[in-house]
Specification:
Elements lengths: L4 H9 L9 H11 L12 H17 L2 E2 L6 E12 L4 E4 L5 E3 L5 E4 L6 E11 L5 E2 L4 E2 L10 E5 L25 H10 L4 E5 L2 H4 L3 H8 L3 E4 L11 E5 L1 H10 L4 H8 L7 E27 L4 E11 L4 E6 L2 E4 L2 H21 L4 E8 L7 H8 L8 E7 L10 E4 L7 H4 L1 H6 L3 E3 L14 H5 L5 E2 L1 E3 L7 H15 L15 H19 L13 H11 L1
Parallel strand pairs: 6-9, 9-10, 10-12, 14-17, 14-18, 18-21, 19-20
Antiparallel strand pairs: 1-13, 2-11, 2-13, 3-4, 3-13, 5-12, 6-13, 7-8, 13-17, 15-16, 19-22
Amino acid sequence: MRLTLTALLLLASGTASAQSISLDTIKDVTKTLSSDEYEGRAPTTPAEDKTLAYIVKRFEAAGLKPGNKGGWFQNVPLVELTAQNVSNLEFTGGKTPVSLAYRKDMVIATYRVVPKIEVKDSDVVFVGYGINAPERGWNDYAGLDVKGKTVVILVNDPDWMSDKAEGPFNGRAMTYYGRWTYKYEEAARQGAAAAIIVHDTFPASYPWGVVQSSWTGPQLEQDTPGDHMDQSLAIGWITNDAAKALFASAGKDLSLMEGAAMQKGFKAVPLGLKASVNWDNAIKRQASKNVVGILPGTARPDEVVLYSAHWDHLGRCDAVDGDDICNGAVDNASGIGGLVALAEAHHKEGTTKRSLVFLAVTAEESGLLGSKFYAENPVYPLAKTVGGVNMDSLNTIGKTRDFVLVGAGKSELEDIVKPFVAAEGRVIVPEPRPEGGGYYRSDHFSFAKLGVPMLYGESGDDLLRGGKTAGGMAIESYTMKRYHKPQDEYDANWDWSGAMSDLNIYYALGRALADGDAWPNWYPDAEFRGIRDKSRAKAK
């Protein structure tokens, strides 16, 4: 049942002022972790040791206690694959051969932990958006056998061009079916030897340079029994220009094929081409670490409220103007800065009835691996985890009039947070860029999938200084010029007023949950409601 406004206001009135949140702490942590000394904070590199030591130092100074049975760390078993001697991705059998160069025209990788990958003369099939959603009456693989074949897939959902969040796949608002992770998962379930996604900047929500920096160099995956042999041999991306050449070689027009794939009842199209690619893998198995700190509760210490942020970034990446360190200042040294500052503020305010847990997770950039491992192997049972807040990239462009709930319409946390947003003189608005699929791209999703409500909120576009025009331009500039690039560096001129306002909201929400009795649930029609109900029933 949803909480009444009166109950919410009572919760709000019981929280302390968040003005004890230290801007100096946020700046100092962000600046330090994003300095060249930390080499982009790639997991399982020497930079990880420096990063973890610094986070523990700041957690201790903030007043936290070691949160994992007297220790600060949770080991996360990872396997690192580094592609070497990568051949061109060759397509033959068409009007003209198409040869795509690694990094420039395509990126290629694998989940399989094997020393060599070879795809040879694999039949190529265009499978539209690569979606099999029986509950929506949609199956791009209907009547198709792609075992051993290479499937070419479009990014996002079939109705991404809609101006509204309405349609078979929520229109402009991306569903999980639009995420690249889902597309590779479904291709593997269908038995495809290789799955190649066609990049397009707007529906992907980032330029090709982001794909280059994220998908080249050492790639991490969770180290599990079976070495991921149930996955496709090869997964990757090709540029839009490369895709046009590929389809032209097959006697097809990419734009016409895209239009056809948007229609319900689309039938996959064999392209009459053969795909070949091969490379060697350097394999390294090594555990990375999540950092876990706690402020123990007094009345019900076994019930926990969770704050999370990822500490990792891309490490050494493709150089831009001679700089090959992806420092990750905004993404997500700033989030760790917020995590430490919130820990300080809660400690200064005093103990709460429930415990407050502060979780700095690893390998978010590799597919939410640290949070996924924690959620599947929780230090504190998920049935006893009340809910919490995830922070991924704080606002450094100034205070906004609006506050965005990413993936809105899912949980009762959205009701609980309303008075805290109002207290900041701000209003909750719909996501300005729902096509980016932000709800499926950060660590809260690992917890949501297993039933724990987590708030993922952020500043909107409507800046106090400059309005929506200035805000939209600033966000677009970051996405196109700095996101996942060496240019994401600390800037002493950043305006942190928006981040401070957001953190005030996160603080108040966490305090209300930790001192209250509420067990926020998912709304009845949310996809995670059944999981939470079963989990809580076992805990009672």
